[in-house]
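RECORD TYPE: inverse folding
INPUT: structure tokens
STRUCTURE:
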């Protein structure tokens, strides 16, 4: 089934459904028959039916469900905008 951008195929009904928050579908850039994809690490979307994801500001990471940008804990820093890593001793 071919769905519009921002929509993917429901695994239960086979119908086109809006992508959930944290996921996107841009069929012109991906397989036109693909399902909604989780935003990549370091990016989020906080609305249903997204066509693209928004990159988190420098120093923040996307949550596991890609719905919000978060800070690392005290004593940590972002590494490659993908994970929190412990700061070197004395820093």
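DESIGNED SEQUENCE:
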């Amino acid at each position: 089934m071919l769905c519009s951008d921002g929509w993917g195929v429901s695994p239960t009904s086979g119908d086109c459904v809006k992508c959930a928050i944290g996921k996107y579908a841009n069929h012109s850039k991906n397989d036109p028959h693909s399902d909604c994809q989780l935003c990549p690490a370091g990016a989020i979307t906080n609305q249903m039916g997204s066509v693209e994801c928004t990159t988190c500001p420098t120093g923040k990471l996307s949550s596991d469900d890609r719905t919000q940008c978060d800070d690392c804990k005290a004593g940590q820093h972002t590494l490659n905008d993908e994970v929190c890593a412990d700061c070197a001793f004395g820093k």
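NOTES: The chain has a mean pLDDT of 85.
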